[in-house]
Amino acid sequence: MATPAANVDVFPTEIQDRLSAFDDSLTHVEATLKPLLDTPLNEMHEKLTPLDKAKTDLIAAYAVNSLFWMYLNVQGENPKEHPVKQELDRIRSYMNKVKDIQDKEKAPKLDKSAAKRFMKSALWQAAHAQAQTQKTLEEASDEPIATTSKEPELKRQKIDTSTPKVKHKKKKGAKK
C-alpha cells in the first residue's frame, strides 16, 4: 500500500499549491467558527438582541449553503442549476432586509417637540411681520393727500415716503 507522501508526488505542483491554499483556508474558517460552535445556541441567543439573532442565523445559513455550493463544485455538478442557488438568493434577500432595518435605526430621528417649537416660532415671526406691514400701511393711509401745482385739483396723489418718488410725464397738449 502506498503512503500518502508518495501520492503527493503524483499530483502536479499547480494542484498541490491549490490544495494547500484550500487546506489553509479551511483551517482559518475552523478557527474563526470555533467560538461560535463551542457555545450552545440557546445560550448565545439569550445574550443577543433580536437584530443580532437574525444576523447570526442568516450568517450561519449562508455559510452552510456556501459550503454545500463548494461541495457541489468539487463533485463536478453545476451549482447554478441546483436549488441551493435559490436558497442562497433567498438568504441574501433577508440579509438586505436586515441591513435596511439596521440603516433605519441609524437614521436621524425627528424631535417632534423641537419641530413644534420651530414651527410656532416661524409662524409667530411671520404673523408679527405681517402685522407690522399692516400697521405701516394703515399709518400711511392716515397721511394727508398732497396735490401738485402742475396737475388739476381732481387728480390727487398719495405721498408714500417709503418708496422712491416717481417723476410723472406731462400729458401732450397740456399748457405750460
Average pLDDT for all residues: 79
SS summary, helix count: 6
Could you list the spans in which at least 5 consecutive residues all have pLDDT below 50?
Answer: 151-155
What is the radius of gyration?
A: 42 Å
Run of helices and strands: HHHHHH
Shape: elongated
What's the end-to-end separation, in Å?
Answer: 135 Å
Helix content: 55-70%
Global structural class? mainly alpha
SS strand fraction: under 5%
Please count the beta strands (DSSP E, at least 2 residues each): 0
Described by strand count, sense and barrel closure, the largest sheet is: none
Q: Which oligomeric state applies?
A: single chain
How would you describe this structure to a colleague?
The chain is 66% helix and 0% strand. It has helices at residues 4-8, 13-38, 41-47, 50-74, 84-106, 112-141. Helix 4 runs antiparallel to helix 5. The protein is elongated and about 115 Å long.
List the helices and strands and how they pair.
Elements: H1 4-8, H2 13-38, H3 41-47, H4 50-74, H5 84-106, H6 112-141
Compact overview of the structure:
With 176 residues, this protein is mostly helical. Helices cover 66% and strands 0% of the residues.
